[in-house]
Design a protein that fits this description.
about 180 residues, four-stranded mixed β-sheet, globular, alpha/beta
Length: about 180
């Protein structure tokens, strides 16, 4: 999850431009490592629609950075689990649409064989998963910017969640990725 220093995953209107400008090849390599450890991407409707438009078309453009092709391949071939009650057709194969109870559905997915799952964007979905206590690890890419307002990732009033720092990676851009596990 890409976050501003003050804890926002996007600007007030969903803006993400603040993190594209400092994205680097070094960060792409780390993202590819993360994608190698996963085979399933969890998404909400808005993030799914935005990512589907990007990852299914952009890699075909001549100007698309060649070093990003491995990431595009993973994004396009991983199974996408989409929590939405309104999407009727797949924009991005392979996609599975889920309308059931979030905690129950994720618990069932965690019991299946395969690699890890990762959640991208999807602020409301992330907040619900955080509150449910079902998140095993937090991978937070903290960007050196203060947005001042936006869509927060941690929207859990009155609930303390204790985490333990597992690892931290610093990039030349000033972005720091922190890996946390839940203290139970």
């Amino acid at each position: 999850m890409n976050l501003s220093l003050d804890g926002y995953l996007s600007g007030p209107r969903g803006e993400l431009d603040w993190h594209f400008g400092i994205w680097s090849e070094e960060m792409s390599e780390k993202l590819l490592e993360q994608l190698d450890q996963t085979d399933t991407i969890i998404l909400g409707r808005l993030t799914y629609e935005a990512m589907a438009k990007y990852w299914t078309v952009k890699p075909l453009e001549e100007s698309f950075p060649r070093q990003q092709l491995a990431i595009a391949d993973k994004m396009n071939h991983h199974t996408k689990i989409v929590f939405s009650k309104t999407i009727k057709e797949s924009l991005w194969y392979p996609s599975v649409f889920v309308t059931g109870d979030l905690r129950e559905e994720i618990s069932l997915l965690k019991q299946q064989k395969g690699k890890d799952m990762i959640l991208y964007g999807s602020g409301s979905l992330a907040s619900t998963l955080i509150l449910s206590g079902i998140v095993d690890e937090y991978q937070l890419w903290i960007h050196p910017i203060i947005l001042g307002s936006g869509k927060p990732i941690f929207n859990n009033p009155g609930r303390q969640i204790d985490l333990k720092l597992k690892d931290s990676v610093r990039f030349a851009s000033g972005v720091v990725t922190n890996y946390y596990t839940l203290i139970k």
